Amino acid sequence: MSSARRVVVVGGGLAGITAALDCAAAGARVTLVEVRRRLGGAAYSVTREGLQMDNGQHVFLRGCLAYRALLGRLGSEHLVSVQPRLEIPVLRPGSRPFHLRRSSLPAPLHLAGALARYPFLSRRRRLGAARAALALMRIDPREERDDRITLGEWLARHGQGPQEVAALWDLIALPTLNLPAAEASLALGVFVFRTGLLTSADGGDIGFHVATLQEIIGGPAERALRAAGVEVRLGWRAESLQPTAGGLEVGGRGGRGTALAHRADGATGAVGEEEEMWVAGGPEGEDGLSAEAVVLAVPHTRAASLLEPLLGDLSGRLRALGASPIVNLHVVYDRTVCEQAFAAGVGTPVQYLFDRSRAAGAPAGCQYLAVSLSGADREMGMSVDELRERFLPALTALLPRAREATVESFLVTREHAATFRSRPGVGALRPGPETAVAGLVLAGTWTATGWPATLEGAVLSGHAAAVAALRRVGIEPPRVRSSLDPLGVHR
């Protein structure tokens, strides 16, 4: 088949989905290949013990306009909800819940009242935190020097000790950067706090997925891509990239021999991260796809392997990005033990918990709580029994009703390389969408979007990759119509 105006997208996560939709809408002939049997990339769902469980609790902000616009294109925006006003219930063992809630005042005053009443810091420490927040607003996250130290170092210089960091700053740093402030890049930390909390009063209102990720992303994306004329090949593994006279060829293989497994750690209740595997029982076939442009939208560890023969230096940079894990605990009680739809923990190993009973289809009368643990290097090395021994008492300390409840199920999902590691120096390692190989374009949260590894960053990278790919095939990308509709496709 001719490669004229043809774009191949390798990877079916949010970045690849976005790039494929954009290129198809502009008139390119698009093929998307994905090694798994479903779309969604790192945002996926599994079925265990009758529950529809998401691998992780992905939230977004009102200000995540690109991600929200993508859901509109997929027709699944009705399956998410955004808080009318930022409100984070904060739980601490032995204390009454405190609701960290913004007011209707303009930023940054919208958080002043909540901080002034915050019970888990003394008045002196609250005043110090307010001064540090104001100083943070004066930092430009684009400054390279701010990517050379940690957010924790900067906070310490501004009077924020371990108590302030644990009780306040890490409430935001951990779930957004997938690292504690003590390890995370100051530049990325500044971006998160300025974008989500300090610049716009409503930009940090939290958005939630009401249904499962498969219902919101995976299924709708496949339907939307096929409706847009994109050829979607699931169970197709890209194995090589080779320049040709007309562009590039993606070597790979597909067929019924491709399957998907979940890595287990040998302990009851373990549900590991997804892992590709080849099994017998169906025909396999080597194949090649030729195109004028290829969008490589796979995890950075996988991209490094595919790029090494062509771009050894870039491959090394991607490997240097490192990885940071996320562990999720899935706990089903025989009764309701938590009144909050979600909550943050202070003075406890429980970072964030979410009530997913309705979305997962929990049995009547039971409550299913998902506990999300970011920057979970320690927890990755713990067995299911060890995690159960550590976290069930912690949940009981936070939720008094759990003392009388019976735990019906305790499952664990793990993502070893959930995100790149947001440490100092990471900014210099993240590449832009274009490469030194003509027609080879990159997409993914690990590219230089300015955002940490988030849903929004993934979609923005897909838009940027589509622009580069379209220009390569001789199609001028559509002009931006609005901030909520980057390519003017969804109205």
Structure overview:
- With 491 residues, the protein is α/β, with parallel strands linked by helices.
- It is 31% helix and 25% strand.
- The chain contains 14 helices and 23 strands.
- An 8-stranded mixed sheet has the order 8-7-19-20-21-18-22-14.
- Strand 11 and strand 12 form a beta hairpin.
- It is globular.
Features:
alpha/beta, five-stranded parallel beta sheet, FAD/NAD(P)-binding domain, disordered C terminus, Polyamine Oxidase, Chain A, domain 2, globular, 491 residues, single chain
Helix-strand category: alpha/beta
Query: Kindly, what is the distance between the CA atoms of the first and last residues, rounded to a whole number of angstroms?
Result: 34 Å
The CATH architecture designation of the largest domain is 3-Layer(bba) Sandwich
> CATH topology of the largest domain, anyone?
FAD/NAD(P)-binding domain
Largest sheet: 8 strands, mixed
